[in-house]
Amino acid sequence: MATIEGSDVNKLVVACDAGMGSSVLLTSQLKKSLSPHGVTVEHSPVDRVPDDADVVLCHAGLVDRARARVPDTVVIGFQMFLGDPVFTQVETAIREGGTLAG
Fold first, then answer.
1. How many domains does the chain have?
2. Range of the domain at 35
């Protein structure tokens, strides 16, 4: 399992598979909340996550595929596209410091 300090996160990628738009909405929300902290937020298909991603957020069902794509990167799964506590944990670690693991 990879780890990273929140203060070291420069690029966060929201990875998806279905293309239903929920992950695009999540990407937009995270851009607004994380850009003041110098974090770039991008959207990507799970099988094309960029190698320079520091953290990947994806639905729990896609975690294994994302880890296979970027094995040395922190990959964090979530259950719900809106209001999942994982998003608050990631934002808090970036804003206030803390370790992210996945």
1. 1
2. 3-95
CA pair distance 64, 40, nearest whole angstrom: 23
pTM beyond 0.85: the answer is yes
Q: Identify whether 58 is a catalytic site residue.
A: no
Instruction: Describe the strand order of the beta sheet including 55-59 as a list of residue ranges.
Output: 40-45, 11-16, 55-59, 74-78
Q: Are strands 3-5 and 99-101 parallel, antiparallel or unpaired?
A: antiparallel
- Residue-level pLDDT, tens digit, the chain, 102 residues: 899 999 999 999 999 986 668 888 999 999 999 999 999 999 999 999 999 999 999 999 999 999 999 999 999 999 998 889 999 999 999 999 999 999
Q: What is the CATH number of the domain that holds 76?
A: 3.40.50.2300
**List 12, 14, 16, 90, catalytic entry:** 16
Cβ atoms of 26 and 34 closer than 8 Å: no
